[in-house]
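Batch queue: ligand-bound targets. Current item pairs a single chain with zinc ion. No template structures supplied; prediction is de novo from sequence plus SMILES. Inputs echoed for audit trail.
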Amino acid sequence: MDKNLIEIRDSHFVVDLMYAGTAHNMTGRPVYQEIGLGNRAFVHRDLWNCLQKLIPYLEQTGRRLKIYDAFRPAAAHRLLFEAIPQDGFFVPEAFRSPHCRATAVDVALLDADGVEQVYPTKVDAYDENFAKQVQAGNLRDFFRYLQKASLDYQDDQIPEAIHNRDELCRLMQSIGLVPAPRRHEWWHYELPDGRTEKYPLIDFK
Ligand SMILES: [Zn+2]
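Prediction returned. Tokens below.
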């Protein structure tokens, strides 16, 4: 394994990778099992140095951070793109995804009882149902739903969900991470320079 990769094993974090299972994953394929990664979350050590700063906060509040995705080997990314070959879901080239550089995580906070807080959408709004619709050429419902996944989405009807989303955003920014450039996925945070040549694609064997 690459010397820059650190496995997240601290008990303040709950690892439940969406591409290691089939329930929460629009391809319906456990691609992380297929390539031998399984349900193991690795991140670049620079990202781990940021995430560690959350521990005092998690300790104080009894909350935990659930990790839905972390390092995504390029081989897994190719399988995902082959399953849903449409730019906008998975970028066609792995090097465009910071997950393949181990510089991004998809996350949500769990409360002290281990229950996920409410947010405007599920983490990764792209479920299998939407994937089928989109492949059939029906994009409208999907894009309407995706608007809710944006960090800029506002809705008076769901104040708690909006509050939780904004609180998560402040928290992740306080440890030095940034949202995705298009701010289109409230669950995605990455190193500010995580898409640069400082962090090349990482091989997985
Ligand atoms: Zn992500």
